[in-house]
Every structure is written in C-alpha cells, then in structure tokens.
Model the fold of this input.
Amino acid sequence: MPDIVFFNGSYLDRDQVRISPDDRGFLFADGIYEVVRFYGGRPFELQAHLARMVDGLRSLRIDGVEASTVETVVGELMDRNGLSGSDALLYLQITRGAAPRVHHFPDGETEPTVFASVRAFSSSVDPTVGAAVITAPDHRWTRCDIKTIALLPNCMAAQEAHERGALEAVLVRDGVALEGTRSSFFGVIDGEVRTAPRSNYILPSITRAVTLELCRENGIPCDERPILLEELDGADELFLSGTTTEILPIIQIDGRKVQDGLPGPVALRLAELFRARTESGTS
Done:
C-alpha cells in the first residue's frame, strides 16, 4: 500500500517529510489536530470535524488554513493511497509553524505547518464484549474544549490504564467523571443516559453529539448533567463513545463489575443505532 501524506501544500511519501526543529508544534505543542473516520470511503461527520477545527484554530489565533482546502486534501489523500471505498482513518495536524523560539506568538506572518495522513482502519473493539476502564485524576489544563496536540496528561493516564489491563482512563476533576483520555464518557443512571455538560473541561466530541442525537431521535431519555464519582458504583450502565471506539459498553471500572459485568441494553442499542448511521451514508 502507498503511504502518501500531505505536508505544507505537497503530497509526499511519508519518509520525505521534514519538520523544522523550530516548529512551534514540536517546541510548545502549539497546534490542533483532528481524527476522522471513513466508512466505505465516506467520511463520517466531516463537516462537524472541520467546524471544530476552525473553532480550534480561531481559539489559538492560527490563521491561513481554510476548511475547504482541507476537504479537498482529504479526498485526494484517499485516492492517492488507494483507499477509495475503504474503511480508513484520517489524521490532521496544524501547528502555528516554524519561528524563532519565544514564548509569545511570532511577530509578523508565520506559515502554519499542515500535515495530514490516512490509513486503512477497522476498529478492534466489540460492543458485545465491552471494555474495562479505570478512573484517574484529571491533570489537564482548563481549555480541554480545544483539541490541541498537548496530550501528555492524557498519555500518562492512558499508560496507567494500559498497565492495569484497561482500555481507557476516565478523568475525574473535583469529584466529577468528565471524559476519557480519547473518548467521551456516559452513564445510564435511573434509566437516563447522562454525560457531562459542554464546558471548557471537556472536548466537544463529534461522536458524543451524535450519541445524544441518537438518544433524542429514538426516545431514549438523556441529559447533559454531571456524573459524580460516587454515582458510578450504582449506575445502571456505563459506556464510552469516540471516533475509534464508536459506542462501547463499560463492563468493569477500577476492577469492579458494572452491574452484572455484561454490556448493558441501552449501550448496545445505541451501538446498533450508531452503526446504522455510519452505514446509511448520511452524516
């Protein structure tokens, strides 16, 4: 399979890419990223991802990248890598660019660094099996609503989960279970699907939004309301949602079973509804 990537206006073999040591993404994690899933060659919720990209760039005051340009690049990458009609994953990263190392933004114009790649992808998680998670303190900064490349706290919590034989770590701040290191977090409590409300403490996840939409379309009670750490043991169900996990029931948290330790009916139904949405070609 070819491995053609997009880098600063050109399509190159991956091993031809050269990033400056003065790039602010390398020096300061000064940039944003997006991950988009393709089903049968169709991007899922691409416009929502591009809208979030634009919001993130605006928040960081990075100029010079248009959503329409990225959309063109996405299609071209799929073609050049022989993935048209395939399940795939797009990674997009945009940094402020290369400039002398100072903490404030560079004076004058700096061309942003734009990198994108695609690869064949099919999820290895199975909603009928479910997953184990742990809880971990949320040590991230307070602008988690921006999808920045500054992910070290996420990586450290994810490593702890990995070492404990779990798929994901659910991050807890001030007694509230907010989200995973790379996924959104939901609970079914007293028959109602709940997830933390949008704020600067969570990412406005695209899959999270689709999950809530599916609940509302199908008469499943739902609310954006904090899930307290003390509520987890008594929850009817717990589940994750995300680009790579889709909707995935949690069967164990911190070594304790969730109810009977089997995937719950609400999460399984939402997983089916989500899969149907991806297969319908509408997004």
About this structure: The first helix runs from residue 24 to 28. The first strand starts at residue 4 and ends at 7.
